[in-house]
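job 3f2a | input accepted
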Amino acid sequence: MSNRKAIAIIYAVMAAVFYAINMPLSKILLGSIPAVCMAGLLYLGAGIGMGILFLGHMKTVDKGEFLTREDLPYTVGMVVLDIAAPICLMYGLEHTTSANASLLNNFEIAATAVIALVIFGEAISKRLCIAIILVTISSILLSLEDISGLQFSWGSLLVLLAAVCWGFENNCTRKISSKNTYEIVTIKGICSGLGSLVTAVVIKESFPEIFSVLLAMLLGFVAYGLSIFFYIKAQHDLGAAKTSAYYAIAPFVGAFLSFLLLKEPFSLRYLTALLIMILGTVTATVDTLILHHQHLHTHTITHTHDGSTHTHQFTHSHDHKHFLREGNHEHTHSAWEEDHFHLSS
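job 3f2a | predicted structure (345 res):
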């Protein structure tokens, strides 16, 4: 393994760990910061931090990478959903355990895939269908407060609603993903953060002490901002599929930190849901790696032309000469290499 690949793996794991600390530390800070205000401060911290990185990166950005008017509907959708999702998550965290919320966040995988299929018409493989079913079963188990009476925990349901919002948001962001990532994350953080803070003022939440504000913004910069930054750095050398495979450890690291820092109790139902969630996450990760495997192929083409004038519909260059002949004639194009993706069922 090359040094660059090893460093990229470290970046991917750091991205996962930085995001994982969000649940237990947010749970602690919610003791002194109201839920909506907390959501706003987290995103605002990420947006300001990534904005500073964006300014340092500005000279290397191609003008074609900036968002345009055509991207506005998806950008607005991204911001609105990023206001709703963390608010639901923070309210959910107030009424469920941090460990539960960490695992329930994985429902975002299922939500994103189903929304992509139903609304955007994207294909879903058999493996991903199995992963969605497993993640959903685990989420139901985690959401049940009383199995005998089938009573659901409102806290868990709010975390699931946050995951659904982020599922929609992921699909909006995917539509503008070819544009500059730093700009997207900066807009996402600052606009969503300010939107949540305005909501907090409208519903008359009390404003926390400045020390708590700074802690929340610092947590947002690390858990959202730096997590995304290192995720992008890892993608550069690992590719999207392998980076997401390493990043999939985040919910389980979050659950472990919850038990370690908050001393939250284990239960048989939780352990069962944990095993099912691990199986579903592994299945989804394997699907991602297999679906996006990449091959470098060498192609050669031999074909026959009649004596009439003809044109070539290939974008590769070729060095053979053409002579107008009365009869059919055959020639072979020079070999060329093509790098493309394959999809598997």
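job 3f2a | The chain has 13 helices and six strands.
job 3f2a | closed
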